[in-house]
């Protein structure tokens, strides 16, 4: 007897679409970050070994310095910055991955004509775009956080071992005076912020990917850049006053660079800090760390109109990308 045919539900179809995106792009989603992590840790270990050998014998040995509390605080901040550095490195890598993934997400299957096959399946264009959007907004960021944590822990251990080998007093404070759970919790709190903040940039890139017949990079990057340059030239004319800073911020920073994790930090810092208040907080490494962590996941960003205007613009752009994909048939 023939086995009964299995009918996939919409969640099942969506799950298969997510798997398809992973297998087609796993080199960028996973291996680019893993390889970068390996390279960073290898070079960090080599540098730490060389530095420890050069410093060994020049340290005061087992004597306890008079300012041990300050020294321990410095080591603790170093451990926290090492964890943050791991997340930052993974974030930069995944930003490039997401940028070029979105640029090719709806263009490549038209370019190689595989779109004809996918359109023959009972899968809607909205579901196809949603699967790509899920990877760009959420799943790549989850992978990035995991890889960033591994990089940060590796750097943390390398710094601690090399400091101990060099005979630096109080090196064990890297473990006892640092705040790994605070750093990790802060980075987890950035996940929903990134999803909302990056929507306009990802929506614009996917719209250009769906609309461009050739070289979507030119339409997505060069056209906005040239438009900003032309407006800046016009603003230099006598008697003509244009909001040049706002134009560059909206078009280039929010429209393109918001795909980079953490780009909301300068905007949030400018909203809540003055030069005087910021200078009072950065009198020590621990103060710098506190300010960075505070503005990285400050809940007040959810009250920022800039965030929600970007969300609305991003949703509109993604909707347009679905419509263009449905009507475009270059193949």
Automatic annotation (TrEMBL):
Superkingdom of source: Bacteria
Keywords: Membrane, Transmembrane, Transmembrane helix
Keyword Cytoplasm annotated: no
Transmembrane segments: 29-53, 81-103, 135-161, 181-205, 217-237, 307-324
UniProt keyword annotation of tRNA-binding present: no
Protein name from the UniProt record: ABC transporter permease
Native species: Pseudoxanthomonas spadix (strain BD-a59)
């Amino acid at each position: 007897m023939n086995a009964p045919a299995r009918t996939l539900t919409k969640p099942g179809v969506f799950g298969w679409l997510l798997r398809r995106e992973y297998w087609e792009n796993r080199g960028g989603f996973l291996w680019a970050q893993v390889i970068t992590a390996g390279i960073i840790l290898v070079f960090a270990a080599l540098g730490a070994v060389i530095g420890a050998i050069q410093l060994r014998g020049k340290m005061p040995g087992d004597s306890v310095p008079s300012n041990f509390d300050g020294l321990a605080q410095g080591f603790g901040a170093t451990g926290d910055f090492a964890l943050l550095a791991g997340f930052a490195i993974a974030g930069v890598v995944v930003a490039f991955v997401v940028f070029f993934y979105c640029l090719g997400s709806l263009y490549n299957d038209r370019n190689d004509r595989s779109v004809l096959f996918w359109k023959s399946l009972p899968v809607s264009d909205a579901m196809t775009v949603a699967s790509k959007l899920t990877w760009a907004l959420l799943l790549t960021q989850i992978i990035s956080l995991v890889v960033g944590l591994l990089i940060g822990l590796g750097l943390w251990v390398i710094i601690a071992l090399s400091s101990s080998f060099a005979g630096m007093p109080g090196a064990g404070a890297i473990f006892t005076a640092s705040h790994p759970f605070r750093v990790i919790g802060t980075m987890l709190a950035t996940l929903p912020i990134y999803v909302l903040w990056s929507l306009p940039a990802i929506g614009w890139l996917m719209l250009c990917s769906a609309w461009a017949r050739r070289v979507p990079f030119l339409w997505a990057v060069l056209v906005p850049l040239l438009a900003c340059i032309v407006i800046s030239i016009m603003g230099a004319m006598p008697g003509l006053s244009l909001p040049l800073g706002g134009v560059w911020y909206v078009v280039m920073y929010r429209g393109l660079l918001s795909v980079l994790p953490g780009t909301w930090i300068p905007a949030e810092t400018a909203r809540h800090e003055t030069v005087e208040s910021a200078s009072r907080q950065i009198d020590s490494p621990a103060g710098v760390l506190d300010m960075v962590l505070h503005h990285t996941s400050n809940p007040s960003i959810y009250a920022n109109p800039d965030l929600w205007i970007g969300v609305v613009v991003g949703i509109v752009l993604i909707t347009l990308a679905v419509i263009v994909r449905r009507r475009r048939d270059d193949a």
